[in-house]
Amino acid sequence: MRRVFLLRAYGDFAIAVQALAATDVIVASLHLKPLYDALMSRGCISPRSIDFVDFGIQGSQLNLFTNKTFFSIDTFRQLSKIRKYISANPGTSDFVEQSARLGLLNFFTGHSFKAIFETGEPVYAAYGLQAQGLVRNGDKVLILPDARLPKRVIPSSILARMDGQVARFGSDYASFEQLIDLIQAADYVVTSDSLPLHLAYLCRKPHFILYPEGGKQDFFTPDALTSGSFSTFSQFTHV
Fold first, then answer.
1. Quick one: three-class SS letters along 151-176?
2. What is the dihedral of CA 119, 121, 127, 131, to 10 degrees?
3. 83 φ, ψ to 5°?
4. pLDDT digit string (tens) for 195-225?
């Protein structure tokens, strides 16, 4: 039996929570609980026993995994809290999601975490998640252009060429529940490479991914990869 620490962004959590085995013990950062609660309230996932712990993560993920906040004092506070949790709750087979900065995580926590998959490996395949055969059935198109990383936000020049409901965070939805409601009500979802993409897969909604030139496909869903439902910004023609 392994114990898995979920310390990364919301999209990573949306993938992991549906993929981890029932025998896995899950320890998740408290900042992920609102997303879990939303997924539960909308019937997207089955109940899981998850120990949500306040590791001091205020942003989207553990500071150690970012470049912008890597050297902040909060980074060391977060790592100290993880170390204290492990000391109080020892485990011999502890995992994190991917291998990025795994050596630093182990050094600062004094622990021996392992990675479920190597960074750069196709994430859905690494978890054993497969294409669901999603087929578009209807004309209600939902366009979700926002992303955590600015370079992944779908440009307005592309949005102007698309027919559908454009929904933006802060004006059209302000919570995970509202975002899930929008996705569940749609027939087809056009999204950037961000959390809404993974919610579309989880909610079994056919989808199309738009991403920047040079962007990686590590987190693309099996359905998008199987059907070729993705395009870079510059190559986009139509949905």
1. HHCCCHHHHCCCCCEECCECCCECCH
2. 140
3. -60, -40
4. 999 999 999 999 999 999 999 999 999 999 9
